[in-house]
Amino acid sequence: MAQSSRRLKGNASADSDTTGRSATYCVVLSALLHVVLLVGLVFIPDLAPARRMIPSVVSVSLVSLPAAGSAAAPAPSPAARKIAEPRPTEKLPVPPSKSTEKVAIAAPKLKPKTSLKHKTYKSEKVVKSAVERIEKELVDSRPPSLEKTLERLKREVADSQEAPRGASTLPEGQAPAGGASAGGSQLSSGEIADGIRIYQAEISYQVQKNWAFSEQLAGADKNLEVLIGIRIAPDGRITDTWFDQRSGNRHLDESAQRAVMKASPLPPLPRGLFSGDYTVGLRFGPEGIKR
Fold first, then answer.
1. Residue 87 belongs to a domain
2. How far apart are the first and last CA of the chain?
3. Is residue 118 part of a domain?
4. If you placed Cys at 205, which of 105, 138, 153, 241 could pair as Cys (CB 3.0 to 4.6 Å)?
5. Does residue 242 lie in a domain region?
6. Per-residue pLDDT tens digits for 7-59
7. Residues 6 or more apart from 149 whose CB is under 8 A from it?
């Protein structure tokens, strides 16, 4: 009996150990399965290749709509299309085309806008450029009054050369002691006077050739007058100029002085008439040199 009871107790303890181990194995196995399942849910989607989504293509045809408010014209019936026959188009006579010259039109240049203050500040420069332009045009095309003055001076030179020798009178304001002398030559006072008159006419002629002044710049006053003194070296160079009398018109004064300076060098002083430099005064008006 004792042995049987011991056997029963040993079997019971062995069964309980086996049951406990089985339960432990089941719990561990269940835990492992849950872990594997969670890992599979997390990492398996990343391992699978991504599916490419191909966008569907939609073809659209554009149709122009009629203008708002205009009623659509009724479509012609098939019968009308069959009846209507195309009319032959008559060719209109084309007139002969005249040869037209191609004219190139340059695009207008845009001038920069300047303020009135800036423009007024440079008004003096604008007037000066306009005067220079007018004077250049006058040099290219001389007015009749200038041509008349040149012709008059030419006649005076010719008349002076043909004047009879031996006259004892000198030009007004000139004397042998005032810069003109025989210089040791055998010239009479009449010959000296004639020589001075001829040289003065030559001076006037050379200066008048360089005269350029628009009478419009003189305004309504046609009696303007400017007197300029000049000093001439024996070789004909004009060494000095000055105003003995101004006209009150700055443009006329500057034009007179400019004409004198452009005439330099003048013809050399005649031998035997002057000792040293020769000083003479020239009188100008709007038309040029006056008598």
1. no
2. 183
3. no
4. 153
5. yes
6. 555 555 666 677 778 888 899 989 999 988 888 887 776 665 666 666 666 67
7. 208, 211, 287, 288, 289
Q: At residue 178, does pLDDT exceed 50?
A: no
In a domain, residue 271? The reply is: yes
* pTM score over 0.70: no
More confident residue, 194 or 237: 237
